[in-house]
Amino acid sequence: MTTTTAAPLTTADAEALVAAAVEAAEKAGVTVSVTVLDAGGHLLAFRRDDRAVLISGETSTRKAYTALQLNTPTADLVDAVQPGGLFHTLPTALDRPLLFIAGGVPVRREGRLIGAVGVGGGAPEQDHGFATAAVESLA
């Protein structure tokens, strides 16, 4: 059996993701915090801006963690946690609470999950756009 593996997310990749998300946010006049996790959920890069809301750092981390654990953008999961939704009880079933607000995006290479980026500080739709712009810049 042959197994192919995608190159893992490096610290340089993570720093580039942070820079791209911050650049996209600054162009929109928004101050954000950004978190990048590797495929194992380990912190590779983090930027907290003191001009952003105090909890934006924790928010960006939880968005990244959610996108990583569920391997999908958090923007696609909002309806799933509503009463009767697929993941209605999931946020309380894990050690680290998930956050189902747009702004977390998985990072893939060669179709494989290699990490996630989370952005917090703007409106959820803005954060999603900044995280998506960062991931697209890595390609």
UniProtKB/TrEMBL annotation:
Annotated signal peptide: none
Pfam families in alphabetical order: HbpS-like
Gene3D superfamilies: Haem-degrading domain
InterPro entries in the record: GlcG_carb_metab_protein (IPR052517), PduO/GlcC-like (IPR005624), PduO/GlcC-like_sf (IPR038084)
Listed name of the protein: Heme-binding protein
Organism encoding this protein: Streptomyces werraensis
